[in-house]
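Why does residue order matter? Because the sequence determines the fold. Keep that principle in mind as you read this record.
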Amino acid sequence: MDETLLREELVRLLRGDKAHMPFADAVKDFPEEHINDFPPNVSYSFWHIIEHIRITQWDIIDFMLNPKYEEPKWPDDYWPKKEKMATKLLFAKSVARVEKDLQKLIEFVSDPTTDLNKPGVNGGGTVLREALLVADHNAYHTGEFAILRQVMRLWGKDHTK
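Structure:
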């Protein structure tokens, strides 16, 4: 596969442009009074899901790019504490950070000088593998967020997906 085409497809996958709902669509117009709701039979809130996406995505980016990377403790450091609640501002910051960090990753993998077949600065999987891991993890939890939003009837009247 042509490397330019591979980078373009990787970016589409990271953005959720094709088979997956984009993160921005899943969180758009989310009703602030429900950010700390726990859907039925779920042990975490809507904000907890967003924060988990943010933490995990950043961990993978940091692993690839930071020579002073320190591995968080699994699973404790990848989810906020169950009792922690978000304010409207904290929820907005979590969403903005997911989007900002994702853009950083997109710029990194789009850069033709980035060797997609080379491991990051800390070894492990290749840049391509780590970017695919972010795309897969984000798609899973973005879909989960959207489905739980539907279960709780938290989509607006204009929602058609």
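Residues 24 and 99 are 8 Å apart (CA to CA).
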